[in-house]
Design a protein that fits this description.
It contains 12 helices and no strands. By secondary structure, the protein is mainly α. The chain folds into 2 domains: 118 residues, Four Helix Bundle (Hemerythrin (Met), subunit A); 91 residues, Helix Hairpins, CATH 1.10.287. It is elongated, with a radius of gyration of 27 Å. The chain starts with a helix and ends in a 6-residue tail after the last helix.
Length: 263
């Protein structure tokens, strides 16, 4: 069984979980782009799709830079599929839609990574690196709420002639100010579906802002050492004491054997 100190030295799975959820969400967007939605909604989905492509391009560059063998990652681990799945559409979605299927390779690789670990290892990783998990989960939750709410509100409002949210930019702005609990009031939903979405966003936004404040306070204000880290430090010191006692015993045994003979 690994010691807490050794477990704490392992790389966290928080980033891999973030990329996994973002990959699944990007595939959902890919499916939504072929649905009979309004033109403004499809345009907004395209913006989110291109934004995710930029994140995946950064992920590809980071993995390629950290890979012990660039050729091994690009061909052996199918990094070239990661690159193809990260190409932005830039208004030419009909020609790049099939490239999004290459993201299934990234999805399969990260899924195998989690399946190769025992449940106890995953739980230990979550406890030891809970700060990283909290940061990635909060950011991911904010992005999901922002994108989903803006798309839903824009789709709901597109059927009302009294709507004042009619473009992707207006919907994105409304979602941002509502999620951050600012609420300027320059744009607001007038349909029943839009108002239900607004109520959910306001409730979720309070929790997300509170989580961000907690994360920032931990980063800016030093906190006491966690119990897991303290236990790992105690274990390391005990190992050093055992080695020191063993050396002293060897020295004492050697001194008694090599001492001067009486007579």
């Amino acid at each position: 069984m690994d010691s807490p100190a050794r477990a704490a030295g392992r790389q966290s799975n928080a980033y891999e979980l973030f990329i996994l959820v973002l990959t699944v969400y990007s595939l959902v967007i890919m499916v939504a782009l072929v649905l009979p939605l309004s033109d403004s909604t499809l345009q907004l989905l395209g913006i989110y799709d291109n934004g995710i492509c930029l994140v995946f391009l950064g992920d590809f560059a980071m993995r390629l830079a950290k890979a012990p063998s660039k050729r091994g990652y690009f061909f052996g681990e199918r990094g070239w599929l990661d690159l193809l799945g990260s190409v932005p559409s830039l208004g030419f979605f009909r020609f790049t839609a099939l490239l999004r299927l290459a993201r299934l390779s990234r999805l399969a690789r990260i899924t195998r990574l989690f399946r190769g670990q025992r449940k106890s290892e995953l739980v230990r990783d979550l406890v030891v690196n809970r700060g990283q998990y909290a940061g990635f989960v909060t950011f991911l939750a904010a992005f999901l709420v922002l994108s989903v709410s803006s798309v839903l509100v824009l789709q709901f409002e597109s059927v009302s002639p009294q709507a004042n949210i009619t473009t992707g930019e207006e919907s994105l702005w409304w979602s941002a100010v509502t999620l951050t609990t600012v609420g300027y009031g320059d744009y607001y939903p007038v349909t029943a579906g839009g108002r239900i979405v607004a109520a959910v966003v306001m409730l979720v936004g309070v929790g997300i802002i509170a989580s961000l404040a907690s994360i920032l306070s931990r980063v800016m204000v030093p906190t006491e050492e966690s119990p897991v880290d303290a236990l790992g430090e105690v274990t390391r010191q005990l190992d050093e004491l055992r080695l020191e006692v063993a050396r002293l015993r060897e020295d004492l045994a050697g001194a008694s054997t090599d001492g001067p003979d009486e007579g």
